[in-house]
Specification:
By secondary structure, this protein is α+β, with helices and mostly antiparallel strands. It contains 21 helices and 16 strands. It folds into four domains: about 90 residues, no CATH class; about 240 residues, no CATH class; about 110 residues, no CATH class; about 130 residues. A hairpin with a 2-residue loop joins β2 and β3.
C-alpha cells in the first residue's frame, strides 16, 4: 500500500488572486520520494489547473523527469468546484487510485544508449547575429497557419514558444525553457524514452520526435512560467523586433501573450504600427493576427520582452541572467502615471513612428476591420457547433467559440480609436468613416450594418455583440428585430462564409488522402482520419439551411425573387458544368432543386467532388 509524506504549504485561497502554487511530497511504493506542484491560475474565461510530479532524486539534466498529472481549463465552473478539484491533488487523493504501472512507466534510472537528445547544437550560445537572423526568419515564415498540418495545437503562450523552437530546431541552436512547477530546464538536450524511438526529420512538421517534445513542453508551461524565460528590453527598433514578445499578466492573474510579427510601416495596418500573432484559447492549429495591444505593465506583470539565451557552463545548460542580456532595460516601467493613450503614443515615439492623427486613426480602424473578419470565422463556427447543435456551457467547444476576451480587446481598441477620432476635424471624421462603409454581410445593403457601424459603434452596435456561441448568429452580431428579408440575407451570408471555411477543412483531408491527386484509400475508421471528418460541421450547416428555407417560404414572392436574383451570380467554386462558365454559385449551394449543401459528403476518404456536393 502506498505511504505518503505530507509537506503541505498554507492552504489559502483568496479570490480574485488565484495565481498560487501549492507544494507537497510523497513516497512511492518503491521508497522513492516525489515532489508535487499544484498550480491554480485564472485565465480569460475560466480557471487553469496544472498538476506536476517530479522525483526528488537528482538526475542528469538531460533526463526528462517531470510528469504532467493533470492540465485542465475550467470554463464557467464555480470557484469552489475548481478548488475542490485542486484539493483532490493537493491532498494526494489521486494516489489511492494510481496503478503501479505509473511508477514503471515513469521510472527514473540511468539512461542507456537508446534515448537521444532532440538535436545536438552547432554551438553553445546564441549571438546578436543569431537574434537578427531569427527576427528575419520570423517575419518571413511566421503566419496564422504556421502549424497547420503539423498536428500541433497551441494557445497564446505556446505559439510564442513554437516559433522560437522551430528556428532553433532548423538551425541547430541551443534552446531551453523553464517547466512550470519544478522550474527544471527543458531543452534541445532533453531525452525521454516516451519519444526517443519516434522518427526525426529535417522538416519540423515531419519530425515526430520534435513534435512529441513540443506537446510535452506545451503541457508543462503557461503564460506565467514563460515570463521567467524572458527579459525586458529597450524600446527601440533594434530590440523590438519580429519574434519578440509582448506579455500581459493582468490583475486577477489572467494573461495574454502576443508575438511581434512586424514593426514599422506595413500594409496590414496601412501605417507604421506593431502587428502581432497570437494563439487561440483553447488550443488550435491556427493563430490570429492583429495590431498589438500596447499598455503599461509593472515590472512583474509583463511588457516588451525577449528570450534569454541558453549557455553551457560547467557541463550544464543555463539561461543567461536577465541583466546580462543585450538590450536589457527597465525603462518601459518608468511610466506608471501615463494614461492608456499617452503610453501608447510614448511607445510609438520611442520606435520613431511619426504618424499624423488621421493616419493613426485609419491604422486603428483598419486593425478593427481585420479583427471583425477574424470574428466572422469564429462566430460562424460557434453558431454551427453551439447554436444548431448542443454545446455544454461548461465544455471545451463552448469555451472555444465564446469570445469574451476577444470582444473585450476589440472594444478597448475601438474606444481608443473613438477618443482619437474626437480630436480630428469634422471633414476627416467623415472621410475616415466612409472608407469602411462596406457590407460586412452579403445582401447588397439589405442587412442594415456595415464595417463602419461596428468600428465606430454606430447606435451602440459593437456593444450589443454577444460572446455566447449558443445564441443566434444575429445575436452574436448585435442584430435585433430584423425583418424576414433581412434574416434571409443574413442566413445566406452565414452559409456562404461557412462554405468558404469548410473548403479549407476539406482541403486538409484531400492533402492527406489524395496526395498528388492519388487516392491512398484512407480508412475513415482510423482515429487520425476521423479527425478530418466534417460531419458535425455539415450537420450544423444543414440545420442552418433548413431554417433559411423556412424563412424563405414565409416571405412574399417579390422578396423571394430579390434574394434569389442576388445569389445566382455569386461564384463559390469551379465544378458545376450546368452553371454559367462552370462555376458553382450560392444558388447551387442553397436554392436549386437538389442543392450542393444536401449532397456534400462528410467522409474524409471521399474525393473532392463528393465532399463538395458537385458530383
Amino acid at each position: 500500500m502506498t505511504t505518503y509524506v505530507f509537506l503541505l504549504t498554507s492552504f489559502l485561497f483568496a479570490a480574485p488572486v488565484l495565481a498560487k502554487q501549492f507544494t507537497n511530497s510523497y513516497t512511492d511504493p518503491k521508497g522513492a520520494k516525489w515532489n508535487r506542484w499544484v498550480i491554480l491560475n485564472e485565465y480569460e474565461g475560466g480557471i487553469f489547473l496544472l498538476v506536476v510530479d517530479d522525483p526528488a532524486i537528482k538526475v542528469d539534466q538531460r533526463q526528462t523527469s517531470q510528469v504532467v498529472i493533470e492540465r485542465s481549463k475550467f470554463n464557467g465552473k464555480k470557484l469552489n468546484e475548481v478548488l475542490d478539484r485542486a484539493k483532490y491533488f493537493i491532498h494526494l487523493n489521486d494516489l489511492i487510485h494510481r496503478p503501479s504501472s505509473f511508477y514503471k512507466d515513469n521510472e527514473i534510472g540511468k539512461l542507456n544508449k537508446a534515448p537521444s537528445p532532440l538535436w545536438s547544437p552547432i554551438k553553445n550560445e546564441w549571438s546578436i547575429e543569431d537574434e537578427k537572423k531569427f527576427a528575419d526568419w520570423f517575419k518571413k515564415n511566421a503566419s496564422t497557419n504556421l502549424a497547420v498540418g503539423s498536428g500541433l495545437e497551441f494557445d497564446c503562450a505556446d505559439y510564442a514558444l513554437l516559433g522560437r523552437w522551430i528556428y532553433a530546431h532548423d538551425n541547430k541552436l541551443p534552446m531551453l525553457n523553464s517547466l512550470a512547477g519544478s522550474g527544471k530546464l527543458f531543452g534541445h538536450f532533453s531525452e525521454s524514452k516516451k519519444w526517443s524511438t519516434l522518427p526525426t526529420d529535417a522538416d519540423w512538421k515531419k519530425d515526430e520526435r520534435f513534435k512529441a517534445a513540443m506537446r510535452y513542453l506545451f503541457d508543462s508551461t503557461y503564460t506565467h512560467s514563460i515570463f521567467n524565460d524572458l527579459y525586458p528590453i529597450k524600446i527601440n527598433t533594434e530590440f523590438v523586433t519580429p519574434g519578440s514578445v509582448i506579455l500581459t499578466l493582468r490583475s486577477g492573474n489572467t494573461g495574454h501573450t502576443q508575438v511581434i510579427y512586424d514593426v514599422g510601416f506595413q500594409s496590414y495596418c496601412g501605417a507604421e504600427c506593431i502587428s502581432v500573432l497570437y494563439g487561440n484559447e483553447p488550443s488550435s492549429e491556427y493563430a490570429y493576427k492583429t495590431q498589438a495591444d500596447i499598455r503599461y505593465h509593472a515590472s512583474n506583470s509583463g511588457g516588451f520582452l525577449k528570450w534569454r539565451w541558453p549557455i553551457l557552463k560547467s557541463g550544464k545548460w543555463k539561461l543567461v541572467a536577465k541583466s546580462s542580456m543585450p538590450g536589457y532595460s527597465l525603462e518601459q516601467y518608468e511610466n506608471a502615471d501615463m494614461s492608456f493613450d499617452e503610453f501608447h503614443a510614448h511607445i510609438y515615439e520611442k520606435l520613431g513612428f511619426k504618424i499624423a492623427p488621421y493616419k493613426k486613426a485609419y491604422s486603428l480602424a483598419r486593425s478593427l476591420y481585420n479583427d471583425l473578419n477574424d470574428r466572422l470565422v469564429t462566430t460562424l463556427q460557434g453558431t454551427v457547433f453551439c447554436h444548431y447543435q448542443y454545446c455544454d456551457p461548461l465544455g471545451l467547444p463552448f469555451d472555444q467559440y465564446s469570445t469574451p476576451s476577444k470582444d473585450k480587446r476589440f472594444r478597448e481598441k475601438r474606444d481608443q480609436l473613438l477618443r482619437l477620432v474626437d480630436t480630428l476635424p469634422e471633414r476627416e471624421k467623415i472621410d475616415l468613416m466612409s472608407l469602411f462603409k462596406t457590407d460586412i454581410f452579403f445582401g447588397r445593403n439589405t442587412v442594415p450594418v456595415k464595417y463602419s457601424d461596428y468600428i465606430f459603434n454606430i447606435n451602440g452596435i459593437s456593444d450589443k455583440m454577444s460572446s455566447d456561441p449558443s445564441v443566434t448568429y444575429a445575436q452574436r452580431w448585435g442584430l435585433n428585430n430584423l425583418t424576414n428579408l433581412q434574416l434571409s440575407f443574413l442566413q445566406v451570408s452565414f452559409l456562404m462564409y461557412s462554405f468558404n471555411f469548410r473548403k479549407d477543412l476539406v482541403a486538409n483531408a484531400i492533402r492527406v488522402c489524395y496526395p498528388n491527386g492519388r487516392d491512398l484509400s484512407c480508412d475513415p475508421n482510423l482515429p487520425e482520419i476521423k479527425k478530418l471528418s466534417t460531419l458535425e460541421f455539415d450537420t450544423g450547416m444543414k440545420a442552418a439551411h433548413s431554417q433559411l428555407l423556412s424563412i424563405h417560404q414565409s416571405m412574399s414572392y417579390s422578396d423571394q425573387a430579390r434574394v434569389i436574383n442576388s445569389v445566382y451570380s455569386q461564384h463559390l467554386i469551379y465544378g458545376c458544368p450546368s452553371s454559367l462558365y462552370g462555376y458553382c454559385s450560392l444558388e447551387d449551394l442553397i436554392y436549386i432543386q437538389k442543392p450542393m449543401i444536401e449532397k456534400m459528403s462528410s467522409d474524409p476518404s471521399h474525393n473532392y467532388a463528393q465532399r463538395m456536393g458537385i458530383n
